[in-house]
Amino acid sequence: KEVGLLDADIYGPSIPKMMNLKGNPELTPKNLMRPLKNYGIACMSMGFLIEETAPVVWRGLMVMSAVEKLLRQVDWGQLDYLVIDMPPGTGDVQLSVSQNIPIAGAVIISTPQDVALLDARKGAEMFRKVHVPVLGLVQNMSVFQCPKCKHETHIFGADGVRDLAKTLGLDILGKI
Predict the structure, then answer these.
(1) Of these four, 136, 154, 155, 162, which has the most CB atoms within 10 Å of its CB?
(2) Where are the domains of the chain?
(3) Cα separation, 126 vs 47, whole angstroms
(4) How many CB atoms lie within 10 A of CB 131?
(5) Which residues, 6+ apart, have CB-to-CB distance to 85 below 8 Å?
(6) How would you label 2-24 residue by residue, b for 16+ Cβ within 10 Å and e otherwise?
């Protein structure tokens, strides 16, 4: 399957680092940006357009304009799936994306700590409110494994995402 990955976290783009990509997108003759590609995945991020340490100090309308450009002014080619990595919370980006793009479903990713779970729950409830199916939850930072003895420790707690999934009537799709 052909997969694209759009980093919609304008203030804190992390896809360049996570996907081991650097550089600026080239432009097509139609003035569309070509996504950078690694691991067989086409990626687009604000992180490709600004310096790595440069802060983005923008208000909502500029952020939404950037998300729109990253989505629609990119030559994505023929994709089977476009995964949109959104910032945590229920702000302008999440609301606009969910209202302006046909979304097959949302996956909520959270660490097991109480504060993170508050945001995860709000995110799930927001998607339900705007009629986007919530496909399930993924627990990030599930366990720390000692590199020497391989002992596993649940530094951030063990059951937070499981408990939230049960409360929301959702499945756990995985643990990272």
Answers:
(1) 136
(2) 1-95, 102-175
(3) 27
(4) 9
(5) 5, 6, 7, 8, 9, 14, 15
(6) eebbbbbbbeebebbeebebeee
Look at the block and give the residue holding tokens 């097959």: 104
Does domain 1-95 fall under CATH 3.20.20.150? My reply is no
162 phi and psi, to 5 degrees?
-60, -45
pTM of the model: 0.86
SS3 label, residue 29: coil
Please state whether 131 falls in left (phi above 0), alpha (psi between -120 and 50) or beta: left
Alpha-carbon span 91 to 94, nearest angstrom = 6
- pLDDT per residue as tens digits for the range 111-140: 999 999 999 999 999 999 999 999 999 999
Residue that has been written with the tokens 């690694």 in this structure: 38
